[in-house]
UniProtKB/TrEMBL annotation:
It is an enzyme of class 3 (hydrolase). This is GTP cyclohydrolase FolE2. It comes from Rheinheimera aquimaris. The record marks 156 as: May be catalytically important. Keywords: Hydrolase. Belongs to the GTP cyclohydrolase IV family. Its EC number is 3.5.4.16. Pathway: Cofactor biosynthesis; 7,8-dihydroneopterin triphosphate biosynthesis; 7,8-dihydroneopterin triphosphate from GTP: step 1/1. Converts GTP to 7,8-dihydroneopterin triphosphate. It catalyses: GTP + H2O = 7,8-dihydroneopterin 3'-triphosphate + formate + H(+).
């Protein structure tokens, strides 16, 4: 078959309504790739890719060229900030007839990391960190950003105080008549009665978005995850035994957090390291049928 003889409607026909378009492309393209941060870790992703169409008299862009460029690029090299400029420029080059001057790429995937247990040696599991990479080339200016979801546990300070108040009242009632209290007796009482549940404790999520220097060799994902999990102190666990669960309980009790506290902890952790970022925190309430949320942004 002579493919050159096939009709090319997108470029042979004038549009019925002439207007320049800000963005034209494809979404949810299935793709696999590696990251410069983890070149041995193959990731499965959904890709969004587009260019602008400034020529009002052009009916459509070369859509298949975008797909081909993406397919070839992810096979040729690990995805890195430094490699994004050349890739997006290749997209613009493929659309010269359309006069395209801006190109965008978004990659959505899960970064899978091995996470050790808190206490038990050699016990570990895999945890997914949903991430989004965004790159936009406009003229010769490239903007790159990384967004990551961090899961953690949050225990409400108010709820903990109320629970402790109940415990204190019961302790006073039990031992009010005794002038001297034996420590073994107290220890036994605590073992039986000091486990009042904290009714307001829940799985929580922080969405961190940071600007990345487009000249860097990698995205610094491990650094961002480490900063966030160190600041929150209660990251979600994978495989656990009793000792690990006990340590997780201790960490929750030592790091009581309103949603405002979590947002501020993260803000303080990221501020020395990133010139611009945004934080969105959600506590998926166990007490209420709605979430508690907080947001904060920074631009040096």
């Amino acid at each position: 078959m002579n493919f050159s003889a096939l009709a090319d409607t997108a470029h042979a026909v004038t549009p019925a309504f002439a207007a320049a378009l800000d963005s034209v492309g494809m979404q949810q393209i299935d793709v696999i790739f590696t990251l410069a941060d983890h070149p041995d870790n193959v990731l499965s992703a959904k890709a969004d890719i587009s260019v602008n169409l400034p020529k009002a008299d052009k009916k459509g862009i070369h859509m298949s060229r975008l797909y081909q460029q993406l397919f070839q690029w992810v096979q040729a090299e690990p995805v890195s900030p430094a490699g994004l400029q050349a890739f997006l420029q290749s997209l613009l080059h493929s659309q010269q007839e359309c006069g395209s001057t801006s190109a965008t790429l978004r990659l959505n995937c899960n970064l899978m990391l091995r996470r050790p247990a808190l206490k038990t040696a050699d016990l570990a599991g895999f945890k997914a960190y949903p991430l989004t990479l965004d790159a936009c080339l406009s003229g010769d200016k490239l903007k790159v950003s990384l967004s990551l979801n961090i899961g953690y546990s949050s225990t409400c300070p108010c709820s903990a105080t109320l629970s402790r108040q109940l415990l204190s009242e019961q302790f006073t009632k039990q031992f009010a008549a005794q002038q001297v209290i034996d420590t073994n007796q107290v220890s036994q009482w605590l073992l039986q009665h000091a486990s009042l549940a904290t009714p307001h404790s829940q799985r929580s999520t922080a969405r961190l978005s940071v600007d990345i220097d487009p000249t860097h060799k990698d995205f610094g994902m491990l650094k961002l995850i480490h900063l966030a999990e160190q600041a929150l102190a209660t990251p979600l666990q994978t495989a656990v035994k009793r000792a690990d669960e006990q340590e997780f309980a201790r960490l929750n009790g030592a790091n009581l957090m309103f949603v405002e506290d979590a947002a501020r902890r993260l803000h303080a952790a990221l501020k020395p390291h990133y010139p611009a970022f945004s934080i969105d925190v959600a506590h998926h309430e166990s007490l209420h049928p709605h979430d508690a949320v907080a947001s904060v942004s920074y631009n040096r």
